[in-house]
Write a structure and sequence with these properties.
The structure is a homotetramer of 422-residue chains. With 422 residues, the first copy, chain A, is of the alpha+beta class. Chain A has eleven helices and twelve strands. Chain A has helices spanning 3-9, 15-30, 35-39, 49-63, 78-81, 106-126, 130-159, 225-233, 245-254, 291-300, 308-315; strands at 183-186, 189-193, 209-213, 216-219, 262-265, 268-273, 276-279, 351-357, 383-386, 403-405, 414-415, 419-421. In chain A, strands 10-9-8-11 form a four-stranded mixed sheet. In chain A, strands 1-4-12 form a three-stranded antiparallel sheet, covered by helices on one side. Chains in contact: A-B, A-D, B-C, C-D. Chain A binds chain B through residues 85, 87-88, 190, 209-212, 214, 240-241, 243-248, 291-292, 295, 355-357, 359-360, 362-363, 372-373, 377-381, 383, 407, 421, and chain B through 85, 87-88, 190, 209-212, 214, 240-241, 243-248, 291-292, 295, 355-357, 359-360, 362-363, 372-373, 377-381, 383, 407, 421.
């Protein structure tokens, strides 16, 4: 585990150290980028790296520094420019136009980061209140989310460039062959779901509550590229009976015939990665699929997607290990270790689509004020993903963690874990 | 209860009588329409009345008659023209272009109905197999769904005409005042959900299964127009903090400031009904609201929408009575009877939005073949509504019935029932 | 020449007879249509036949009857419903929603026509003022324009129906072979352009004025289907160098690969006509091409489109004869007679795209008031077409007549006449 | 006149000096821009400054160097990346995605310029053929067009930034008051139009040919902001009778109520300029208006726009002087000198919309090959503008010069000159 991950896990014992570690991790991710790379926005869903650098800083300035006596804004215009979606804070620069902000420059945004860091660290050293500490800790987990988005947004941007630029050179191990899927079973019964205990969790991970689960089994690993190609070769993208109605409409409208970033050249498949175009490796977990593709694949494979409760039930006691951003591979890879005791790769590699719509847990109440806009207002029409990916910081993940995206979205590092009724 | 409703409930004892009753009920609904009224399509979501008349007939021809020896199509082109979404059957005339089918004429479609009716009735009299009877029964419940759509689609069409035509003259009783809301409570515990027993149910209502419910309470009646106007007057449509993010984006984009069909004239509100423009009655249940509006209202009212399981739990033992299409009011109205024993108006008046995404119940499997496309493939991005409306046939409704629409849709007779945690 | 055509040409000697003739000609065109046929609208550019019937009547009510003492509107709502684009008159029902007006019914619109006809005829008999007569005459020429639109709009509507309904049975003669194109030359020099003399003309046909024309030659007949197929087979739709930039963008975006209404079946070309689907006849003039296709064809053929002045110069002294709507063929056909003296088929068969943008002639001033909106405000981004088509009334045509459509539009009976520099 | 302008005018005597002068003028314009500023694209019509720098270089590489023996591409991918619209050359990177090209970097594009410059200059010194010299000269005039676009595209980009960045500090003189408009008259008669003589001209400026012009008069100067505000205050944007039909539809759809870049703050008007937000100066020529606004203003003012022939007739003998890019004002300003002899400011300040559609002159033939795509294929649906602007290089302008844009476009430095019939 890298320093930033370890430090964040020890936030309560040394907040300043955790703060510095997470903040510098973000800068390290942005380090290979030119000012041009950091400023462009390739689609409405994505943001420029510079915007991520600034917005995560805005979070600390707005929710911590602004409340301190004598605060003066670093730049008054930033309050609007780098507000993402907090209506309680005020107006927002329109999301689709983030790529037009050539000013402030990348250098100015770095100065903004330094300015805010200095003040936050000074305040932490003076001794922050418990409420302030809670917001700082939230801000660090927030920043980790943007670390992942910085990578996935950049990947999308670079994929739009016909020269297929590389963000980083891979150092991935040569792949072995993926083991055959076997199945791990759970009995039916009442289960407790949601975050519990002392560590940090987002509001949407609670309250902890009971559910009744029917007996089910989970696949021992995610679906691989090779398996997904079998689905494609069996006419997967031409057979409406395999698809949700919305999915089939999307396939037709968008002319999908493979996962995002796949391209065929002279009969062989390549995929665009953060290291540029690569030959597709059959044994890697398939990624950059929508919920629709995940669901169609599962139907084709006579299986289904797990519910988020089933996934959480399976992951509950497992160590949080796997191919996270710290590996620097930045691409899903076959499991390095497997066991018959439990499914492999629940953590890391690919976010696993579940069949669960993103909804409030029973008795969920968002906090008062702007922070209450963090999660709750997105609880419609999105689906839950679990487990983190090769672009997620390891310390960011836990069994109760709920990520969420819309069914057609594919630019995240999403993958497929199969489940079955028993 | 009208003849068609009663007859359908006794399908197993007299299928032919049930068939004739439901089919003629559809024709009675279309009776006031001119050929022009029956041919137009006002938006992609809606279909012309003529199309409903033909498609419901197509269902019987395709899934029953076509399988009989010696079958000859009434008109070979109808197989495509009146296929809604059954990819297993083959191509479909594009949905947004249903209003361009000036041929076949309304008279020809009526002849088509008579032709198919004659053959279905003859076959029922000769003695149909259990499988065939099951499809006929499904076709009748399918036709009832289209009876409701015929009315809501027509209402939308007429609302687009500046002359505000009336489909029917109302005979609604003068409204009394709506009683103050009180709350009915349920304890937490394990509950069984889903259809059970002998009567007809759609596949999506099962399998019956256990869930764990936390303690909750339900409002004694739906939200009224008067209450909804208080929300509006309190800035409901201008306060983003009350809305789901997707909802707020929709309000901005669509410039919503009131439910569908409401219009202000000289400071007073009117609403378009199937009887033309009417002064808005404060005590009527509010209707033609999206899920977003329902959710925002609930947030404003310090409550929430019920889950579909909570709703079903509350409705389980209640008689299926209320303001259904048989009242001929065609508009939601205040409860005629209330009691302290249970919430009023769970059935009829307005479809009640729930906070539950439309998803498969545990172990749900759609049937093989084209009939399997009926429900399962729509299980993404839609929300469940419960209880039926003033445009629903009474015999169509039951406690386990799951209707579903997309969150922004407003042209159905949708309303709001509040719930609260306990 | 049919009665209506002849009568209109003698308007000044018997206005009432001309009025009755033109009005009844419109009704004769609508006679084969059901109420459903007459109510539907297949695209924004087209209008329902019922709307044409009503709007042409609205013209007389609004611009003649409304100005008479004691006038009472037939129906007050019609003033908005059937106003096309006269902002001076007031609001308009939105054009894309004309197909949603199932009320008033076709029968009511016919009653509206009878009501207005009775009053106009009575007024003409009482003796109308010269100004009133001028408006009535304009209204009749206006009505003739809508007679053509009624047919072309209906053709588009029927083409959207997979059953390919026929409006009328053709009685076209068996085609002979089209003669080889030869060229008719004109010297350079000063020419007078624009309407002159006594008969009716629209305001946009004047003032008569001088232009300087370079020497040119015109093809002896329009381009045929057979010639156009040679262009297609030579890769016409795949070679950007043949196209205007806007045209090529349109070809790509709309995926055009043939004229509108053409479809290939088992290697043979068919075309949709007002008599239903027909085998494509090589010797018929090509029609339903955009300006872009006309221009690309001309470039391919080492020629160009004529300017409207060149066309007018060629047509000036010719008798106004040809395949007009009176032939009842309703489809362009090879010339029945040709001569070496002048180009054939300048009148009738197909509207001939010119390379001239629709612009005001020198010193053009639209009239004051609502009538001034008739032509002048459309003088941007449209192109001039000349000569009339097989759907145009013969008495409607003259050498100075300027029709105009946008370059990508194809649903009119448009064709191609080649020209060359000398 | 600056060195680049003077040098280009002497191209035939010293091509290398002219080449160097124009090329370095482009770089001087881009000098104030950061790499971020140079990479962003604010709308489909505009291109990033970096793209302009590269495309103008691509022109020389593709049309000159590539034809020389032993040529090796600087970077093979540039052939597609920086091809604007030359289908004859091959594929093009999609125009709307030019802003996503963060690679090649600005530094690499500068290296590309240096690389090509070195080779072109070496070739010119070795002695280029007349054909090659003609292409180099064309390339320099092409580059001047992109110099202007670089500025107007950048202005649009900066206008999208809420912080209103400045490209350059203005050094404009304090405005005096604009003189009252008077009128300069021309008799009717035959005129010769189009380029003649020795200097450079684009293909679209010829062949020189005769036209007949009616008598007309032209306003002595362009319309000012103050005059345009009077139009606005007289309800200009709310009165459909003043507008072309397409213009009125655009006003409604785009919600226009003032020229582009105008904004009202506390009752006073400001306008965004290349020096940032400025108070609107009543005496400056109005700019950033569409053809529709120019036409509506002219109608309101009981005048009309001139034809391009009228404009050329008026400008023919005048010295090419005025507020061009060399003034470094980068904004239209009142005339510094006026005279009763001829209209002022025909050159410079603002491009003057004409009422003439952009069309080929008689006998116009584009050249063979890719260069033939330069002008001819754009001759549909665009309108001619004349005279150059404060962002045009002075040596780029001449009386026969024809600029062209679509009627709704407003981001060029466009203005209004009135004309009247006599």
């Amino acid at each position: 585990m890298r320093r930033d991950a370890a430090d964040l896990l020890r936030f309560s014992s040394d907040p300043a150290r955790a703060y510095a570690a997470v903040r510098s991790a973000t800068e390290a991710l942005a380090e290979p980028l030119s000012a041009e790379d950091a400023a462009a926005q390739s689609m409405e869903d994505a943001s420029p790296a510079k915007w991520h650098l600034a917005h995560t800083t805005w979070f600390f300035e707005t929710f911590v520094l602004e409340k301190l006596p004598g605060h003066r804004a670093f730049d008054a215009s930033f309050r609007v420019l780098f507000n993402s979606y907090y209506n309680t804070v005020g107006e927002q620069h329109p999301r689709p136009r983030r790529g037009l902000l050539t000013r402030p420059s990348l250098a100015e945004v770095r100065a903004y980061r330094a300015h805010v860091d200095e003040r936050i660290l000074a305040h932490l050293e003076r001794g922050a209140s418990p409420d302030e500490l809670a917001v700082v800790e939230l801000g660090l987990h927030h920043e980790q989310q943007h670390q992942e988005l910085l990578l996935t947004d950049l990947k999308h941007l670079f994929s739009c460039n016909p020269t297929a630029p590389a963000y980083a050179a891979t150092r991935r191990p040569t792949a072995g062959s993926a083991k055959v899927i076997n199945w791990h079973a759970w009995d039916d019964g009442e289960r407790w779901i949601g975050h519990e205990g002392e560590g940090f969790a987002f509001d949407n991970e609670g309250p902890r509550h009971r559910v009744w689960l029917e007996a089910f089994e989970l696949a021992s690993r995610p679906v691989t590229n090779g398996e997904y190609r079998a689905f494609m070769e069996d006419g997967g993208y031409e057979r409406p009976e395999l698809w949700l109605a919305d999915g089939w409409a999307t396939v037709q409208r968008e002319q999908w015939s493979a996962p995002l970033y796949w391209q065929e050249r002279d009969g062989a498949w390549e995929t665009f990665t953060l290291s540029g175009l690569e030959e597709l490796r059959a044994e890697d977990p398939v990624t950059h699929v929508s919920l629709y593709e995940a669901d169609a694949y599962a139907t084709w494979a006579c299986a289904r997607l797990p519910s988020e409760q089933e996934w959480e039930c399976a992951a509950w006691n497992l160590p949080i290990e796997g191919n996270f951003v710290e590996s620097d591979w930045l691409h899903p890879s076959p499991a390095s270790r497997t066991t018959d005791d439990h499914p492999a790769q629940l953590y890391g590699d690919v976010w696993e689509w579940t069949r669960s719509a993103y909804a409030p847990y029973p008795r969920f109440q968002p906090p008062e004020g702007a922070i209450g806009e963090y999660n709750g207002k997105f609880m419609s029409s999105q689906m839950v993903l679990r487990g983190g990916s090769c672009a997620t910081p390891q310390s960011h993940m836990r069994a109760s963690y709920r990520n969420f995206f819309y069914p057609p979205q594919r630019w995240q590092v999403t993958g497929i874990r199969l489940a079955r009724d028993l």
